[in-house]
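Incident review: delayed structure delivery

Summary: a single-chain prediction request sat in the queue longer than the usual turnaround. Root cause was a stuck worker, restarted by the on-call engineer. No data loss occurred. The affected request and its eventual output are reproduced below so the record is complete for anyone auditing the incident later.

Affected input:
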Amino acid sequence: MAKKRNVTREDGRIAVQVYLGRGEDGKRKYKTVYGRTQKEADEKALQVKLSMRKGIDVTAERDTFEDWEKRWLKAKAMNVSAGQLTAYTSCGAHLVRAIGHMPISKIRTADIQDVIDTLADYNPTTKKPTAKKTLRQVRMTAAQVFQLAIDNRVLDYNPASAVKIPEKAPQEKRRALTKEEQEWIINTPHRAQRAAMIMMYAGLRRGEVIPLTWTDIDLDKRTIQVNKTVEMIQGKAVVKNTAKTDSSLRTVDIPKVLVDYLRYEKEKAQEADKVKILRPLVCPSAKGDIMNSRAWASMWRSYISDLNLKYGDFSDMEKRPKSKFIPGGVPMRIPNITAHWLRHTFATMLYMAGVDVLTAKEQLGHADVETTLQIYTHLDSTYKRRSMDKLDAYLSEEGKIQSIK
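Output delivered after worker restart:
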């Protein structure tokens, strides 16, 4: 692997060529490195040789991060939902904006850390500090782009693996409903109530509730089969006969409160249709067909408005609003309950009931147990006293507590 030395450029730098082998055209290929001194140039040449011995493709080191991010997104587009691809594209855009121009081989952990720290302070899209969940997604995107380069023998380490999420970054405002708020869902009839009850007591995602049919629900066995999902593509609902991931294909065991509610709703739907053959969708649009993004948003706004009118605190107003259609609208006095909050409520119920993390993973349809563990770990910090109470109860039942004299 001969190299040519002492080629001095006009700018005073010394160039050293490292022989790389012959190309597909049979011609000899070299890589040129530069140094202010012969020692510096030789050291760089040695690093090239060491990389080659590891199998690294040193000819691709000039490829930028943006080049590899585009390759990664192209591969992802074939295997993920439209919504997930949009999320990946957004995370990639943050990275490309900051380090996209840099050769991927030159990027270090500190460069990615700077991106994360900057986003933690200010997100140019939202004009606010970036939530920890989003920062983790950006870090994961960077890690996967670098891993693609590693798999293609362009790099031998992943600089994103050591990046830390700042503690000061805000947590995403997603929480479980309180007992009082759960009662709101149970006691307020509305076209959206079926969806809300299913998300709160079975943990289904919005995209899993929309295409749900009555044949997917076995009230005698107390189960719901999750076997399809809806993707909103340019506002239109596209049903896929598969779930979000393989793990999302699942059978969810449901509690008696949901069984009783759905049994009543099924009988009510049959009476409304004046036949014994139900319309297939459990949560159809106002027209009876599958909901698109606009139909869902309209239904949910109406539902939250009804909850607000019924349960909101309007003691500071001269008169309590009697209709949600008053001029100027009714001031929002309750939290903006979302589908994510209802699903998180189900996860919290599983935790509070003592359901183990692996069973919770299956019930929630998480792709990996780490996602469930993050929820359980967060709840552990919130309900730490409850965990110790369980230990006290166990020790007491087993007769293991001895009086100390």
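Verification: Strands lie at 3-8, 14-22, 28-35, 217-218, 223-226, 229-233, 236-240, 250-253.
Action items: add queue-age alerting; document worker restart procedure.
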